[in-house]
Amino acid sequence: MVEFDPDASIEHGAPLPPYRQLAGILAARIGRGDWQPNRSIPSELRLVQEYGVARATVRRAVAVLVDQGVLFVVPQRGTFVKP
């Protein structure tokens, strides 16, 4: 498994797809304590702006973390860190 730096940026020419890189970076930020359990992460738009990726990339990265049990989504409320 690849370790990610929570302060890393997306490397568009890297062999790992941007959504996987973003998922790893977000997981590392959660692990570092940037976002606490039951608290929301930044909006899709904010992550798009911060990382310079498409909205679909952010959605795929979040879906990976939801599948891994790191995040959960509350419709109309946002995406939250799982306790």
From TrEMBL:
Residues 16-83 form the HTH gntR-type domain. It comes from Micromonospora olivasterospora. The keyword DNA-binding applies. GO terms for biological process: negative regulation of DNA-templated transcription. It comes from the Bacteria. This is Regulatory GntR family protein. It holds the Pfam family GntR. Keywords: DNA-binding, Transcription, Transcription regulation. SUPFAM superfamilies: Winged helix' DNA-binding domain. One of its GO terms (molecular function) is DNA binding. PANTHER family: MANNOSYL-D-GLYCERATE TRANSPORT/METABOLISM SYSTEM REPRESSOR MNGR-RELATED, MANNOSYL-D-GLYCERATE TRANSPORT_METABOLISM SYSTEM REPRESSOR MNGR-RELATED.
